[in-house]
From TrEMBL:
This is THUMP domain-containing protein. Residues 14-68 are annotated as: Disordered. GO terms for biological process: tRNA methylation. Gene3D superfamilies: 3.30.2130.30, Vaccinia Virus protein VP39. Keywords: Methyltransferase, RNA-binding, Transferase. Residues 1-132 form the THUMP domain.
Length: 341
């Protein structure tokens, strides 16, 4: 499986090729399909310049599956804008090339191998799925909100922070509880705190923690508290790792509110975070306000790493911050929700 040929539409109707070295050259295929391949359709028609003319061949129906061959399906995920093709078109093109080269059977449900195509802007990755069941659906959450975070993204954020045994890990905007439950699953020797200011989020997180306890027959792995992050009740210099899925300003909040919320949140985290060794991992699609807040709090935080991630078609960023040695115990934290007299 070291040789792949992928065909993608271009604005002028031509196709581009990606071919790895290691096998004999592949013939030059040209598309004759008028629509993407779907379940129940006949096999996509590919014509090689080396093949005889279609007029010289007898018409043929759908190919009969060979039980001795593997079955597969192709799935395409895209992020970003400006693509002149649809995900189904990419999946159909790659699937046609894979079937023609390897001779595998197409089966969208009972497949042996899933070929996954990830497209983010101009970058294309072709992968093989390792799990039959998506890691997003592992039964961690039974009560979710409109902005619940995927378990896979939560696991990636936790891995970036590299928590150690005995450290205090805090999700200060826990929402439905994706991050704290995932953190306990991977780092059971740490102490886990979670909180939110919204009562609905607290209720959902409590329901998910209760389901987790019942499922694994254990006590609650997370200390859940209702708090206002801008008036954080934790002692200064005690939290080792902060994790937060910040409001994007789309489904929840607004960009205007984020302009004052982000600096206040970073200031509160800096006050309670352990100097020098403390870390914070933040997720947000409002990159402008997040960058501005980090610059305002540059005395207390330095950027260690920034990673782009696609969430439901939205391009977001995960930012890993390291705490500086500057203390913030006397810094004033402005509550963006407070009203002046």
């Amino acid at each position: 499986m070291s040789a792949w040929r992928t065909l993608f539409y271009e604005p002028d109707g031509r196709h581009s090729e990606i071919q790895n070295v290691g096998h004999e050259p592949l013939p030059d295929y040209k598309f004759t399909r008028s629509k993407p391949y779907q379940a129940g359709d006949s096999q996509p028609k590919l014509q090689s310049s080396e093949d005889p003319s279609p007029n010289d061949q007898a018409p043929s129906g759908p190919k009969v599956k060979d039980p001795s061959k593997l079955s597969f399906r192709c799935t395409c995920y895209r992020a970003g804008s400006g693509h002149s093709f649809q995900s189904m078109e990419v999946a159909a093109a790659v699937g046609a090339a894979v079937q023609d080269y390897f001779g595998w059977n197409v089966d969208l449900k009972n497949y042996d191998i899933e070929v996954v195509i990830w497209i983010e802007g101009p970058l294309v990755r072709i992968c093989l799925s390792l799990n039959r069941l998506c890691m997003d659906f592992r039964g961690q959450l039974v009560d979710v909100g409109s902005t619940a975070l995927r378990s896979t993204i939560a696991a990636g954020m936790i891995r970036l922070c590299q928590p150690r045994s005995g450290e205090i890990i805090c999700d200060c905007m826990c929402g439905s509880g994706s991050i704290p439950l995932e953190a306990w699953t991977t780092h059971q020797n740490a102490y886990h705190l979670a909180g939110d200011c919204h009562p609905v989020a607290i209720d959902k997180c409590a329901a998910n923690i209760a389901n987790w306890c019942q499922r694994w027959d254990q006590r609650s792995p997370v200390e859940l508290i209702r708090w206002n992050l801008c008036q954080f009740p934790v002692r200064p210099g005690t939290v080792d790792v902060f994790l937060a899925d910040l409001p994007f300003g789309k489904r929840l909040g607004s960009r205007r509110e984020n302009a004052s919320l982000y600096p206040a949140a970073l200031s509160a985290m800096a006050k309670s975070c352990v100097p020098v060794t403390g870390r914070a991992c933040l997720l947000s699609a409002d990159r402008k306000n997040l960058s501005r807040a980090i610059k305002l709090m540059s005395e207390y935080w330095t950027i260690a790493r920034t990673i782009g991630v696609g969430i439901g078609g939205i391009t977001a960023s995960i930012v890993l911050l390291n705490r500086t040695a500057t203390t913030n115990s006397a810094a004033s934290v402005v509550d963006p929700g407070a009203k002046s007299d």
